[in-house]
Please model this.
Amino acid sequence: ETPCINRCALDAARVCTKCGRTIDEIVGWRSMTDAQRRAVMARLRNLRLILRRTILPRIMRALNLIAVWR
Model:
């Protein structure tokens, strides 16, 4: 199991904007133990949950407001 979607794009903090892994996690993925990989996957799942519950609803409300203003 890997979060990679073969579309790497690093931001200024050196985090992939596609899969959410840090550059160190990407580079070291193959040498990580199963436990380390599971920890990364759990962190990414938690991050996606947080984004869905906080930021995404705000974005959707903003987009709805923009659509109303047009």
In short: The two ends are 44 Å apart (CA to CA). The chain is about 60% helix and 0% strand.
